[in-house]
From TrEMBL:
Segments passing through the bilayer: none
Ranges where the Aldehyde oxidase/xanthine dehydrogenase a/b hammerhead domain occurs: 23-139
Official protein name in the record: Xanthine dehydrogenase family protein molybdopterin-binding subunit
Pfam family for this entry, one: MoCoBD_1
Lineage: Bacteria, Bacillati, Actinomycetota, Actinomycetes, Kitasatosporales
């Protein structure tokens, strides 16, 4: 109908919340001052399996300042247990289909069995140590070796969204037809969530109205889940979460602490703040499960794949069939006629695992891309050439074409930037003093998952020429407030500094939890819809206003720039229009819903990862010297924040490759590492030079602005590229994560 002159979208603008964060003015959920706040401290089970036979809280209750001690004996029963993550849409999304402190059963170590509430956090912590718990303990099952013989194939996994078995063609025939086969078993240590801000909730009741300050990726998801757990209408629950100090999946679903804080606040009749300790983060918000993947590739001498068999074994909880969808991409991204993928689970004494950055894809691509590298080595073929020979323009599983790709360009651009053409393919051929130097690459891809429900936003223009656009979504470090300000500015045809984005509150229009790299696409679609609706409303008002210089103009001919509507030589500013009509503001709402039914396209973000490592063969040390990632995420909303997201993902991939690991003690069922002193993550000294390039590809299918998202894909393929580089440096193929000194000695 009308046009604007785009200027803000894609620009590397500084973050609008940057000053507030570096000066300490940004308030995170635990920092919101609420008068008369009491503090809750969780008591976790010391055993992994059995039941609680007695809880003696008398000493704790006698301590000064203690308001109550809640256990399974006096905590109210929940009204309903919502299903496990029924969609990515911001519908009720509990962390597991089990709510603690409803009976005396213990399913896993660290399970919440009591809550102490006191007038200070220190008193609550002290009193919690005085709670005496007796158990009837049974032997736990926690490790792969303990559960292997009792494994089963689930009907569906990943919250019911993924089949437990995927097949096409005849994999046995494909393997028989192959000239070359590579086969390997890949093992992965469990990974735990450690965002800089622990999970926390402050709950405040005013009569039958509940206000929650929650650390969450989706305020509407918290609202819906707590509504169902407590049996109160959603309209009586308000959730606020303006700034979230990182999430990466553990705050994407709603774990028990949010509702427990509300229950405790109702019990003591005053606001209650519940903040998980760092140790409790290891047992309360899910994790990436320990897993074993067995992968077999069959290929002809020319490199064409004939068969892929990909099996996975992992533990799940006693109450959910959960597994990362690790075998999904191996069924889709390479042309191959015969495929078999199977998930096998066993019931273990663990809480339900959960989303962790690039869930399933980061782990699955490690097995697939290391196997592809091994196949290239067996064939004497360049690894990029092997991938190009198996490149497909359609999803190999469904046959549906990609809505857009750009993968070939990522290979080409990445190889050129990294200097791949000068590579000597022989392992161990390059040295730098005591260091063996190797280079490796891997494909990166991550599916685009549109939400199931409508996404909404609201735009308001004031007579002073400023605008505010609103949507409920929190900002958990991705820079959503910045990029949505840019989207709003372009939609309205205004300068960025005249626009503001308000977010993080269920009183604002609903937005689904921003998970699975879907946030940028779905939020921008809603914001764009609201902004353009308001722009067109104002243009229609101007051309119908006898006092406007644009009176009688065709709306199609009106162009808006810097808040001024122009048609030919006539112009009228937004602010002038409103003031002339004694109108303090104008408002419009916008909504975007993904197409109903099955879309005849498959949506995927593609990229290519490259890494150079140095390995000290005598000491087994690995140092990543440089990394290059080239990605095609559709339209880029902000080049600076996108590169930051991708760089962070690549560095996390480095941590996944070389550092991050946790293990369950098979006797006690407890995590061996439960602090950042023991659980290793990458630090500045580990970080190499990281080169990120963005390739914009047009995608008219995925959403109105063609945005695919970059939150996850930076991690996918990074560990595989590093492992392939280690093989190139040493000639040793390591099929486990993380790669440790012991693996290379």
């Amino acid at each position: 109908m009308t046009t604007t002159t785009p200027s803000a979208i894609g620009q590397p603008l500084d973050r609008v919340d940057g000053r507030a964060k570096v000066t300490g003015h940004a308030r995170y959920s635990a920092e919101i001052p609420v008068p008369d706040t009491a503090y809750a401290y969780v008591v976790g089970s010391r055993v992994a399996a059995g039941r609680v036979t007695d809880i003696d809280a008398s000493a704790a209750r006698a301590e000064e300042g203690v308001l109550t001690v809640l256990t399974h004996r006096n905590l109210p029963r929940i009204a309903e247990q919502p299903p496990l993550v029924p969609s990515l849409a911001g519908t009720a999304a509990p962390g597991q289909t089990f709510f603690p402190m409803q009976d005396d059963t213990v399913h896993y170590a660290g399970q919440q069995i009591a809550i102490v509430v006191a007038d200070t956090w220190e008193r609550a912590q002290h009193a919690a140590r005085l709670v005496r718990v007796s158990y009837e303990e049974t032997a736990p099952v926690t490790t792969l070796d303990q559960g292997r013989d009792r494994a089963y194939v689930p009907r569906r996994i990943f919250g019911g969204r993924t089949p437990g078995r995927l097949e096409r063609g005849d994999v046995e025939t494909g393997l028989v037809d192959a000239d070359v086969r590579v086969e390997g078993t890949f093992t992965y240590a469990a990974n735990n969530h450690n965002p800089i801000e622990p999970a926390c909730t402050t709950a405040q009741w005013e009569g039958d109205e509940l206000l929650l300050y929650d650390t969450t990726q989706g305020v509407n998801a918290t609202q819906m889940t707590v509504s169902r757990l407590l049996g109160i209408p959603m309209s009586r629950i308000r959730v606020m979460s303006h700034h979230v100090g990182g999430s990466f999946g553990c705050k994407a679903v709603i774990h028990a602490h949010s509702a427990l804080a509300a229950m405790a606040a109702r019990e003591v009749g005053r606001p209650v703040k519940l903040v998980l300790t760092r140790e409790q983060m290891f047992t309360s918000v899910g994790h990436r499960e320990e897993q074993e993947q067995h992968l077999t590739l069959g290929a002809k001498r020319d490199g064409r794949l004939t068969a892929i068999r990909h099996h996975k074994l992992s533990p799940t909880s006693h109450f959910d069939d959960w597994a990362e969808p690790s075998i999904g991409l191996s069924s889709e991204i390479y042309a191959c006629p015969d495929y078999e993928g199977v998930y096998r689970l066993f019931r273990a004494n663990t809480m339900t695992p959960t989303f962790m950055r690039a869930p399933g894809r980061a782990s699955g691509m490690f097995a697939l891309e290391c196997s592809m590298d091994e196949l290239a080595h067996e064939l004497g073929m360049d690894p990029i050439e092997l991938r190009l020979r198996n490149h497909t323009d359609v999803d190999a599983m469904s046959g549906r074409p990609w809505s857009s790709s750009g993968l070939r360009e990522c290979y080409e651009r990445g190889a050129r930037r990294f200097g791949w053409s000068g590579r000597d393919p022989r392992p161990g051929a390059r040295r730098d003093g005591d260091w063996l130097i190797g280079t490796g690459m891997a494909t990166a891809c991550y599916p685009v998952a549109p939400p199931a429900n409508p996404q909404r936003a609201r735009a308001r223009l004031y007579a002073d020429g400023t605008a505010v656009v609103q949507a409920a979504t929190p900002d958990f470090g991705t820079g959503v407030a910045t990029v949505m300000t840019q989207v709003a500015a372009d939609g309205l045809g205004m300068a960025v500094d005249r626009c503001r984005f308000e977010n993080g509150d269920t009183d604002l229009p609903n937005i689904a939890a921003a998970v699975g790299s879907a946030g940028a696409g779905m939020i921008s679609a809603a914001v764009h819809a609201a902004a353009t609706a308001l722009r067109e409303q104002l243009i229609k008002r101007a051309v119908g206003d006898p006092g406007s210089p644009l009176h009688g103009a065709d709306p199609v001919d009106v162009v808006v720039r810097d808040g001024v509507m122009t048609a030919g030589t006539a112009s009228d500013a937004y602010a002038d229009l409103l003031r002339r009509n004694f109108q303090p503001d104008a408002e419009a709402s916008g909504q975007w819903s993904p197409p109903a039914g099955e879309v005849p396209y498959r949506m995927m973000t593609f990229g290519a990862q490259f890494a150079e490592v140095a390995v000290d063969a005598e000491l087994g040390l690995v140092r990543v010297r440089r990394m290059t990632g080239v990605f095609a995420p559709g339209r880029v909303l902000n080049a600076k924040t996108a590169r930051s997201q991708l760089m962070g993902g690549m560095l996390w991939g480095l941590g996944q490759a070389l550092l991050e690991a946790n293990y369950m003690d098979p006797g006690t069922g407890r995590w061996a590492n439960s602090s950042l002193g023991e659980y290793l993550v990458a630090v500045n000294a580990d970080a190499p030079d990281v080169d990120v390039e963005l390739i914009e590809v047009e995608d008219v299918i995925v959403n109105p602005l063609g945005v695919k998202g970059v939150g996850e894909i930076g991690q996918v393929g990074a560990a595989a590229a590093i492992a392939n580089a280690v093989h190139h440096a040493t000639g040793r193929r390591v099929r486990k994560l993380p790669i440790t000194i012991e693996d290379l000695l």
